[in-house]
Specification:
Keywords: c-di-GMP, Cell membrane, Hydrolase, Membrane, Transmembrane, Transmembrane helix
Bound molecules: ligand C2E, calcium ion
GO molecular function, one term: cyclic-guanylate-specific phosphodiesterase activity
Catalytic activity: 3',3'-c-di-GMP + H2O = 5'-phosphoguanylyl(3'->5')guanosine + H(+)
Radius of gyration: 19 Å
Mean pLDDT: 91
Helix content: 40-55%
Low-confidence stretches: 16-21
Number of strands: 10
Number of helices: 10
EC number: 3.1.4.52
GO cellular component, one term: plasma membrane
């Protein structure tokens, strides 16, 4: 416990102090970590409506720091975005997943989903097209559904490159999900512009399903919106059977959360559902 606390204190100090003093020092540290292979892909299962089958997974990055241990993404993603390192870091995650799972493609259920989180700044970089192409090519034996998650917390201001990027991704069959849905202010035009396929109901609403009527109301409204716009729905942060039942009854298409499985290293990811 003491070690954990020390690591936490160090990482907080490290993050804040370094960022304030020398931004470039931290960028250098992130670059070093990327070269050293310290950014590792973890997978969290995504379940079907009934919560009985693993239909896909979300890729979540972890920084395995040699001194500080495991660092959660909230602590370094903003810095990686700021330094432009988010692009090669995401590429590295895609590489890890396709190299581990590509050879097992035949064992995957048909149209298995692989979801990657994409930062707003990444949406102005056409190299994402090539990265997605390489990913899909690794699964040509049994095509998968590649999904890019864009968070609603950070609205993307589309320029010409962004529009070209999303048109091309759409032609390639890459899907787009709006993450943390309900917390931001994306308009219908926005959903159209990015040719959105999935909405992910933010976990804060799912967490309060059993306890407050407003959250239930928000969930019901998102379900309604999704069905009217013909979008698939994912609920994240599902932790209790009561939440799962509520979402199932509302016809939410996919579920994700600790009830079904935490994010785990690639080697520990199981394709079979471990029922709660
Ligand atoms: P997110 O995309 O909304 O991911 C969901 C977060 O909730 C993850 O935290 C996940 O571990 C956690 N979670 C999953 N199930 C449950 C549950 O049942 N209950 C609760 N309380 N939490 C649950 P994590 O892995 O720490 O990631 C935090 C955020 O960092 C992500 O939020 C995402 O915005 C960002 N992130 C993670 N990996 C990447 C990445 O590779 N690239 C980018 N650009 N952002 C990433
Ligand atoms: Ca996400
Ligand atoms: Ca989310
Ligand atoms: Ca689409």
């Amino acid at each position: 416990l003491l070690e954990g606390t020390l690591a936490l204190v160090l990482s907080v100090f490290f993050g804040v102090a370094c960022f304030r003093r020398t931004k470039s020092g931290l960028h250098h540290e992130l670059n070093r970590a990327l070269d050293a292979g310290e950014f590792v892909a973890y997978l969290q299962p995504m379940m079907n409506r009934e919560g009985t089958q693993v239909t896909g997974c979300e890729v979540l990055v972890r920084w395995m720091h040699p001194e500080l241990g495991l660092i959660r993404p909230d602590r370094f993603i903003p810095l990686a975005e700021d330094s432009g390192l988010i692009v090669p870091m995401t590429r590295e995650l895609m590489r890890q997943v396709r190299e581990a799972m590509g050879p097992r493609a035949a064992a995957l259920p048909p149209h298995f989903h692989f979801s990657f989180n994409i930062a707003a700044s990444h949406c102005h970089d056409l190299s994402l097209i090539e990265d997605c192409r390489s990913f899909l090519a690794a699964f040509s034996a049994n095509p998968v559904n590649l999904v890019l998650e864009l968070t609603e917390r950070e609205l993307i201001v589309p320029d010409e490159t962004t529009i070209q990027l999303f048109d091309e991704l759409d032609r390639m069959g890459v899907s787009v999900a709006i993450d943390d849905f309900g917390t931001g202010h994306s308009s219908l035009v926005y959903l159209q512009q990015f040719k959105v396929d999935f909405l992910k109901i933010d976990q804060s609403f799912v967490a309060r399903i059993g306890s407050d009527a407003l959250s239930r109301h928000i969930v019901d409204n998102v379900v309604d919106l999704a069905s009217r716009l013909d979008l698939s729905l994912v609920a994240e942060g599902v932790e209790t059977p009561e939440q799962a039942e509520y979402l199932m009854a509302r016809g939410v298409d996919f579920q994700q959360g600790y009830l079904y499985g935490c994010p785990v290293p690639l080697a520990d990811f199981w394709l079979e559902a471990k029922l709660p």
